[in-house]
Amino acid sequence: MILQQWLTGQLIAIQLEYFLILLVSHCYFIEQRYYRNTIEDCLHAAERLSSRTF
């Protein structure tokens, strides 16, 4: 049971890490392409990614 909980925790951590990497790289891409990196752009990206990832 403890092992199962640990594995579940690891999977959630990996998924969150993947989500954060996607979010950061998306915001970086926006900044490079449009020379601006607004919080709004990042929030919209987060909304799109979260609905797709989780």
Automatic annotation (TrEMBL):
<protein>
    <submittedName>
        <fullName>Uncharacterized protein</fullName>
    </submittedName>
</protein>
<keyword id="KW-0472">Membrane</keyword>
<feature type="transmembrane region" description="Helical">
    <location>
        <begin position="12"/>
        <end position="30"/>
    </location>
</feature>
<keyword id="KW-0812">Transmembrane</keyword>
<keyword id="KW-1133">Transmembrane helix</keyword>
